[in-house]
């Protein structure tokens, strides 16, 4: 059994590695890791549902776009998320991500613990090691 994700020590920013037996699971766990930095997902009710569709040339850039889209939704729509469903499909020339996310209004959560400014390309990687997918992400806070 593998852990879903682990937070790494970083002096000025937030960094984590998310794991998964599948690409989809690693993308879900990366979203959970990022959400967990902002708020305890167990306190967020899945009252609002949103669909996300993205495409990218490579899995690492698709991961970047996925987490950036979640951050955008948080900032613009003022929604925090607690539940994620992701399906990544390879196609000629890249990948497509279709996802559904559930959460609720930020206004119900005055206890936001961290403000994430951006997902970065620094240390970004998505790779398979010993049959486990690893997604490493550095967030600018």
Automatic annotation (TrEMBL):
**Binding locations of Ca(2+):** 13, 140-141
Q: Does the keyword Calcium apply?
A: yes
List the Gene3D superfamilies: Archease domain
- What Pfam families does the entry give? Archease (PF01951)
Tell me the keywords, alphabetical order.
Answer: Calcium, Metal-binding, tRNA processing
Annotated Archease domain residues = 5-141
Q: Name one GO molecular function term.
A: calcium ion binding
GO biological process per UniProt: tRNA splicing, via endonucleolytic cleavage and ligation
- Look up keyword Metal-binding and say if it applies: yes
Instruction: Report the superkingdom from the record.
Output: Archaea
Task: Name the protein family.
Answer: Belongs to the archease family.
By its UniProt entry, which HAMAP family does this protein fall under?
Archease_arch (MF_01222)
Q: Which PANTHER family match?
A: ARCHEASE, PROTEIN ARCHEASE
Chain's role: Activates the tRNA-splicing ligase complex by facilitating the enzymatic turnover of catalytic subunit RtcB. Acts by promoting the guanylylation of RtcB, a key intermediate step in tRNA ligation. Can also alter the NTP specificity of RtcB such that ATP, dGTP or ITP is used efficiently.
Query: Which NCBIfam families does this UniProt record tie to the protein?
Result: PRK00407.1
State the name under which the record lists this protein: Protein archease
Species source reads: Methanocella paludicola (strain DSM 17711 / JCM 13418 / NBRC 101707 / SANAE)
């Amino acid at each position: 059994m593998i852990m879903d994700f682990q937070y790494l020590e970083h002096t000025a920013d937030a960094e984590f590695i998310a794991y998964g037996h599948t690409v989809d699971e690693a993308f879900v766990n990366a979203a959970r890791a990022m959400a967990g930095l902002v708020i305890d997902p167990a306190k967020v009710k899945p009252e609002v549902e949103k669909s996300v569709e993205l495409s990218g040339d490579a899995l690492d850039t698709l991961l970047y776009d996925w987490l950036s889209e979640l951050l955008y939704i948080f900032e613009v729509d003022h929604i925090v998320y607690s539940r994620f469903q992701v399906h990544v499909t390879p196609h000629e020339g890249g990948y497509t991500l279709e996802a559904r996310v559930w959460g609720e209004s930020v206004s119900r959560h005055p206890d936001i613990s961290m403000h994430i400014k951006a997902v970065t390309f620094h240390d970004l990687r998505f790779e398979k090691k010993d049959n486990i997918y690893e997604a490493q992400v550095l967030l600018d806070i």
